Amino acid sequence: MERRLQISIIGGASCDEPTAAKAEEVGFLLAQAGAVLVCGGRTGVMESACRGAEKAGGTCVGILMGYDDAEANPHVDIRIPTGLGVARNAIVVASGRAVIAIDGYYGTLSEIALALKIGRPVVTLGSWLLPPPPGGKQTADPLHHAHSPREAVEMALRLARKSPEVA
Amino acid sequence: MERRLQISIIGGASCDEPTAAKAEEVGFLLAQAGAVLVCGGRTGVMESACRGAEKAGGTCVGILMGYDDAEANPHVDIRIPTGLGVARNAIVVASGRAVIAIDGYYGTLSEIALALKIGRPVVTLGSWLLPPPPGGKQTADPLHHAHSPREAVEMALRLARKSPEVA
Amino acid sequence: MERRLQISIIGGASCDEPTAAKAEEVGFLLAQAGAVLVCGGRTGVMESACRGAEKAGGTCVGILMGYDDAEANPHVDIRIPTGLGVARNAIVVASGRAVIAIDGYYGTLSEIALALKIGRPVVTLGSWLLPPPPGGKQTADPLHHAHSPREAVEMALRLARKSPEVA
Amino acid sequence: MERRLQISIIGGASCDEPTAAKAEEVGFLLAQAGAVLVCGGRTGVMESACRGAEKAGGTCVGILMGYDDAEANPHVDIRIPTGLGVARNAIVVASGRAVIAIDGYYGTLSEIALALKIGRPVVTLGSWLLPPPPGGKQTADPLHHAHSPREAVEMALRLARKSPEVA
Known about the structure:
Four copies of one chain form a homotetramer. The first copy, chain A, is an alpha/beta fold and 167 residues long.
């Protein structure tokens, strides 16, 4: 069996309309390219991305915070009710071979940091910028900055294909 | 979108040949009925059930213990590398609207108990029997005992459809 | 620094009076022997054991299900609000070098099974009995049965001292 | 029983000597003030902070990534082997009524973000600075910046005493 690439989308549970449109396009293009979309399964950026993926006939996995399937937005196909609260953020990013961050707030920032910690490449589309780490420990920006949904998807797919099987 | 039912299969990471055959038939029948199979994604009962589901064109989700996708058996479509160790057992059972237990050992026993704790119905096919709880607190057996793969799948689907959306 | 042994106590969030008295005596004797008591931090067996430990001047750690410190019973010194729901059961048993099970229900059964899965010795005092695993895979009872609080504490301390540092 | 305040210390598993000295002083002052120190239990900033707390006769709790007690540095009193990998970061910050961040890298950044997400006040001492969230969603800096170990401890204790019991 040839497995489909899994790409994680992270972003806020609420967002403005232009951000929602970008997230929907990202989801659509990912699904069109044959990738499985993994996210936190909720509203906002997550729901818009799932809506886009559904329009392209794709598969969406929602890694939920509670035990309640109904927490998932209506475009999620596979619902994983973890019951772990915010600790589930680590699973959201671990489940993608690459991560696309769109807008977001502290939850999204935690996911970006967890992804970098466990070695998942992170593409940002209008999301957090990272200052240099404290103590001058590093200078190269670890994030891949995209300027359009299409560029974000292309970057993520390219990085995911290069990404090792093992975290 | 009409969502497919998710059914969890639990059982040992190693098993004998007759058990593997039963697990494969359970996976095949579940997929044939349109259900998504969720399991721990590893070898033994899990791998056999996934092989059966794949033969019927179904979808298998593997909730893995580590961060390494390669931990998944080759029949898993959607890989969720949790990094949680045995704590992921709670997620395996929470992710099914009903649970089918086949054979197994202490990990499987923990999953049966966690499923009962959070209110997921459990069908057993040659798996653990439960003695009465200590202190004589209850008399009715909480498990649903099936005697064939077909009966296990029918029981699980019936229980899953009656099971509330919310845990 | 010489570290104090950590012993986990598991049991139901509600219990009858004779069970509460046994749990309190177990907690008292453990603390008197210098052990740190780890539990789920809630009511019932957990609260009684913590009360006993407090009377002997001991230390109690509560591994809580939610994020709310107030979930802990008033005798818990160190509160670990995990937010993990029932997945925290794995941490409760992993945090003791040995486990004492008193009475309980499905949550307790899951903890007994998880302890055996990760190799923690389990002493029972009026708790679950285990039938043989399915398929006749084993005959020796993996549990250590005590008949009094004093015997439970002596067994747990002896097993904990023999238990390897590494799980 | 009057409970001692729990304060979480976060920071890198390796650090330079001046940072280690600062972390040790923070641990010492926290313990002197009667607080319990919670951290990830490992090397670097964590070990230095625990060493300081031990010198002042304090109590250190280590929330470990694996199942192996031996992962803890030698100054940890209470060892919680979670087996959760980086998902344990959420528990580290949830277990303090306030958090002090010293230096660090992506793991520390994830902990800062998780703390803000669940509402724990964060004091920084030479750790990450946060840019404004994407989309101009907020302007006030959510972090409390200290310029010395003494100021960090005073800030954390003051914030912890004002912090609600419930997350």
